[in-house]
């Protein structure tokens, strides 16, 4: 199987109103045929319109979470089938903010991943250690457990992407050293059910450190938060990935 393209994924988190679709439009205009896989994951309210905005460009859309069930009495939740129906091709699952804010366990994440696959979505499964866990030398144990417990049987390079996001690096402006990223990515590659499953790094990726991050062995792209909100910043990161 040919190697899959690297990925630049933007996680808008709880940011984005209609006016911000202009950023998606500008990004699509800058990369009408991106050399890498590029996607934006806006809040659920913007997914359908984002899909229309990006339609015809090579850029794709993703959700930020889904319920494990197809449909039902789950007020406020969104199913994977609904995301797909709105035009999403991917869904971020198990982000540390959901694990922290909503007490999501890896077992719950695994159920959501299975639902995503069922709906034909690519699951971007997030994992990463807290600062205390790293200080205690437990990073590899933590990510190994999260990986094993968050992926159901059946993960393939076509249906799954894993994002290593150290919790302490998210939104902090701090990043692990290149050696630290390489160590975790190398380890996750060994632990992964398939070595071709793409491994993204996430946590304070910016235009000025993107080249450095993408040069780390084993990094197949990035999951970007704050710097994905502006087309100019995210575009610079996409360009860095394309030339890496
Ligand atoms: P920042 O890029 O803002 O640090 O966020 C990373 C992240 O959580 C992406 O999912």
- Name the CATH superfamily assignment: Aldolase class I
Taken as a percent bin, the fraction of beta residues is 15-25%
Provide the spatial order of strands within the biggest beta sheet. Answer: 1-2-3-4-5-6-7-8
Total of helices: 10
Task: Give the oligomer, counting copies of the same chain as homo and different chains as hetero.
Answer: single chain
Number of strands: 8
The description of the largest β-sheet is: 8 strands, parallel, barrel
Ranges with pLDDT <50 over ≥5 residues?
Answer: none
Order of helices and strands: EHEHEHEHHEHHEHEHEH
| Rg over alpha carbons | 17 Å
What does this structure look like?
- This protein has 244 residues and is an alpha/beta fold.
- 39% of the residues lie in helices and 16% in strands.
- It has helices spanning 21-30, 44-54, 80-86, 96-101, 106-118, 131-135, 139-150, 178-191, 210-214, 231-243; strands at residues 7-11, 37-41, 60-63, 90-93, 122-127, 160-164, 198-202, 221-224.
- An 8-stranded parallel beta barrel has the order 1-2-3-4-5-6-7-8, surrounded by 6 helices.
- Helix 2 links the parallel strand 2 and strand 3 (60-63).
- The longest helix is centred in the last third of the chain and has 14 residues, at 178-191.
- It is globular, with a radius of gyration of 17 Å.
- The chain starts with 6 loop residues before the first strand and ends with a helix.
- 1,3-dihydroxyacetonephosphate (13P) binds at residues 11, 95, 165, 170-171, 202-205, 223-227.
């Amino acid at each position: 199987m040919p190697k899959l393209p690297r990925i630049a994924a933007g996680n808008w988190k709880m940011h984005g109103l209609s006016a911000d679709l202009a950023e998606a439009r500008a990004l699509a205009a800058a990369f009408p045929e991106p050399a890498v896989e590029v996607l934006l994951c806006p809040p659920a309210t913007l997914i359908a319109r984002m899909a229309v905005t990006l339609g015809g460009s090579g850029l794709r859309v993703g959700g930020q979470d889904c319920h494990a069930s197809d449909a039902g009495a789950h007020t406020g939740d969104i199913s994977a089938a609904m995301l797909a129906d709105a035009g999403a091709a991917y869904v971020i699952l198990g982000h540390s903010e959901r694990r922290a804010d909503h007490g999501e366990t890896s077992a719950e994440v695994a159920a959501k991943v299975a639902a995503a696959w069922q709906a034909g979505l690519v699951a971007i499964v997030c994992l990463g250690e807290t600062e205390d866990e790293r200080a205690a030398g437990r990073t590899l144990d933590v990510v190994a457990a999260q990986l094993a417990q968050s992926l159901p049987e059946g993960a393939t390079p076509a249906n799954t992407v894993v994002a290593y996001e150290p919790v302490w690096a998210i939104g902090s402006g701090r990043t692990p050293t290149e050696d630290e990223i390489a160590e975790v990515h190398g380890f996750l590659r060994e632990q992964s059910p398939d070595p071709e499953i793409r491994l993204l790094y996430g946590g304070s990726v910016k235009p000025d450190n993107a080249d450095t991050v993408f040069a780390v062995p084993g990094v197949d792209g990035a999951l970007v938060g704050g710097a994905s909100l502006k087309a100019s910043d995210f575009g610079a990161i996409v360009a860095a990935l394309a030339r890496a």
